[in-house]
Amino acid sequence: MKFLFFFMDGIGLGQDDRRRNPFAQAEMPNLSALLGGERLIGLPPGVVLESERATLLPLDACLGVAGLPQSASGQAALLTGVNAPAILGEHFGPKPNPAIAEILANGNLFETLKEKGRRVALLNAYPQAYFTEINSGQRLPGAVAMAALESGLPLMNADDLFAGRALSADFTGKGWRERLGYHDTPLLSFNQAGARLAELTRNYDFALFEFWVSDVLGHRKDMHEACLWLKRFDQVLGGLLDAWNDDEGLILIASDHGNLEDLGTRRHTDNPVPALVIGAPDLRHSFSERLGNLTDIMPAILRFFDVE
Predict the structure, then answer these.
(1) Sign of CA dihedral 15, 21, 22, 24
(2) Is the pTM of this model over 0.85?
């Protein structure tokens, strides 16, 4: 069985308010069809949305800790099943501090699955400048990349991107051409990028793709740009859904904290975040039955693989 964790940084379940929430305004026909005609907005307490291919439920990102959830501690909770904010006594981010780094180094999702013989991958490609800055100490990796490195999983690079073994964070590779100087980067359409995600996941048991642009968009408070990128994401989702056989495993789209769903503020929000589970009904219902907050994701994935 295959599992794709499509991690979207900084998306919560917000109000049905077109003035503030791009999810209430953007044209997203593939997501709407997946959700039975609904949009990705807040659900009433205790409500789970069911459709033919998907289950949508809210996850608590606050974890009993005062303040607004942050990326490093939220992602650590997702990747370890440990309530990192409670251990720290605060939400922390964007990059891991030493305490979060220690949590990630002691049994994260990549490491645990690898030790149990599962094939795992982080599907993002990183440019050479990223590795240079990390190795020189000029830059800290984010929690997802740090978890992969702590597990001994090599990060994919430009060679992997050019060979079709990885994806760029903007899906298409256009950013690598225009901003990073890789002028001959192969280009994909957004639909092709979604199909590539399905194709690459089949090479592994567990694969994760990190889309961090969504959090950046939330901080910018630009409704036009946010709606444009959600439309692009929807095309990626369409390609992914067309290429995915629901009986071969699950797709999980989830986040670490709210942000993009409320452009009335540049700050994060305390809204619940979505857990959108896609796959055959028996698989996704079994996976979803114990999900309530960020710390429940790793145990659910381990149960999916029958790993203690």
Answers:
(1) positive
(2) yes
